[in-house]
Amino acid sequence: MKELSNLMDYRPGIKAVDATLRDGGLVNDFFFTDEFIKNLYNANLRAGVDYMEFGYKGDKEMFDPEKFGACKFCDDDFIRSIVGENNTDLKIAVMADVGRCNYKEDIHDRSESPVDLIRVATYLHQIPTAVDMIEDAKRKGYEVSCNIMAVSNAQESDVKVALDILGKTPVDVIYIVDSFGSLYPEQIARIASIYTEYADKYNKKVGMHAHNNQQLAFANTIEAVGDGVDWLDATYGGMGRGAGNCAMELLLGFLKNPKYNVYPVIQFIEKHITALREQGVVWGYDLQYLLTGLFNQHPRTAIQFTNEKRKDYSEFYKEIIAQD
Questions:
Q1: In terms of CATH architecture, what is 8-278?
Q2: Fewest C-beta atoms under 10 Å: which of 16, 94, 172, 312?
Q3: pTM exceeds 0.85
Q4: pLDDT at 153 > cutoff 80
């Protein structure tokens, strides 16, 4: 059992990672205004957040730039237009999805880029390509993390093999990702023990990225903290795909490190996140997301349900059952 007294102290190795533009961008096709992005950057600076993820390194041959905002592609010049040379303690991150980016061409040498961290996202069957991406990013001078997605659908033996492979690469951080929001804190504790075993063996850090389908994103994140996980993803107002993510305002309120300040987060939410909701941008817990979480399914059907403005939850339940 975890000691209650541990909640009164802080672990200096904790890193708070803002994923608002990346995961949040999935609900508005990354169409954020420059004002929104600049104010978010300044809020992160004032709040003491450690990393700010600007979005994806999407392949422009696969994704039409006319249909997405700039954070889908994260060109270096675009990021510089927001942060300049970023002479601050806040580090800049981007995500590179296996199979959805041209990493050899679009990720330039670190010396030529404002980006500090490349976050490789992979499914288990894509691990060999993920390894190549990790090694490529390291050669170019970046910090590198790796998100193993949909871990709730994976066999434990397969996860262990993947962790052993990744442990032998130069990756810095390996992430637990509850892609479907289907995991419970007890399961997070078990998974974290496996990840930290390999992380300790290979001198890596472990991260946590949670989704809120069962209103457990925050609970699962703080469970992970207690289990030795140091890198913690969160978004302002919980903005993210489907049911959203662990809310930054909850996370910084929980962490006792005096370098963090929740007030700038509250200010940003009041001015910008509330405005997005009023404009009709939709995310957050609802019954359709609960159902895909309960049955450990990808939320794409729940997202379609939401986009179609359906309210026949019982009919959707029957559809979900038929797919399970």
A1: Alpha-Beta Barrel (3.20)
A2: 312
A3: yes
A4: yes
